[in-house]
Design brief:
about 45% helix, nine-stranded mixed beta sheet, D-Maltodextrin-Binding Protein, domain 2, alpha+beta
């Protein structure tokens, strides 16, 4: 009896050790519907739900901290923050490492209906309106989508500026344009033949590789289990073309699981067949 009790206590102590790691996660508190603070003052949104799901699978306790993506690299370097969910830039600072892509966000080129669009090259020397509060700005700039820029505080401000004849076109996430499109449908429209998507994942300091490895495992699990799709439906219903939900890594994992399951079934079949013969 005593040995059973000791064994039970040992299991509790082991589990507490496994889940004892706590990390500080910076999130953008004003990026609805991905990350925001709800009416109760709590972190909420599509990405927040995904973070909690990943943390559970990665056996990580998280402490969510309100902030801004623009300060994330410095916060990681100084050790004030351990992990940041954000758009993944093509190039990162030397002290920053990135996770696998959690999903990708579609971006749309928005133009005034009164302006005729010819081709992409006709936009290169025109003035584009971008949100400076969004770290996708550096990605878009690095791709040389425009030589002249007007920076605003939010996607809504970008659309308002374009609607009021500032700049020639704007680049905003498709989700946010759809959220606000009713207010601008008479004057603004999407240029449909330009496709742009930006990957979204996590960044950490390069000395925190273990955190990124655990996060990557959590990402793989929630994608394969279907929890990612469940959270997506909670926030966006069955709306398509808002984010890229599937990834090559998910497909590879699915193939591995299916192949492994088939192999197990074959082995069980052969074992049972041998038992019948004997």
């Amino acid at each position: 009896m005593k040995s059973s009790a000791l064994f039970f206590l040992l299991l509790i102590s082991i589990s507490s050790i496994i889940f004892s790691e706590e990390i500080d996660v910076l999130f953008n508190s004003d990026y609805y519907p991905f990350e925001f603070v709800n009416d109760k003052g709590d972190p909420d949104g599509f990405t927040i739900d995904l973070i909690y799901a990943i943390a559970r699978e990665a056996a990580i306790n998280i402490n969510l901290i309100k902030g801004n993506w623009q300060l994330s690299d410095d916060a990681l370097y100084s050790g004030n923050i351990d992990l940041v969910p954000r758009y993944l830039p093509e190039k990162t600072a030397e002290h920053i490492i990135t996770s696998d892509s959690l999903f990708s966000v579609y971006f749309s080129f928005i133009q005034k209906k009164a302006v005729s669009y010819k081709n992409f090259n006709s936009l290169r020397n025109r003035t584009v309106i971008l949100s400076s509060g969004d770290s996708s700005e550096e990605y878009l700039i690095s791709r040389e989508y425009s030589a002249q820029e007007i920076l605003t505080k939010s996607w809504m401000d970008s659309l308002n500026a374009l609607n009021n004849d500032y700049g020639d076109y704007s680049i905003v996430s498709t989700i946010h344009y759809k959220l606000y499109s009713d207010e601008f449908k008479n004057r603004l429209h999407i240029i449909n033949d330009l496709n742009l998507s930006v990957p979204f994942g996590f960044t950490a300091a390069k000395w925190d590789k273990n955190i990124i490895n655990n996060v990557n495992n959590g990402i793989s699990i929630i994608k394969v289990s279907g929890e990612f799709d469940s959270i997506y439906r909670k926030w966006f219903g069955n709306e398509e073309n808002l984010i890229i939900k599937r990834s090559k890594s998910r497909d590879r994992i699915s193939i591995y699981i299916i192949t492994g399951s088939i192999l197990v079934l074959v082995i069980l079949f052969l074992i049972n067949k041998r038992k019948v013969k004997s």
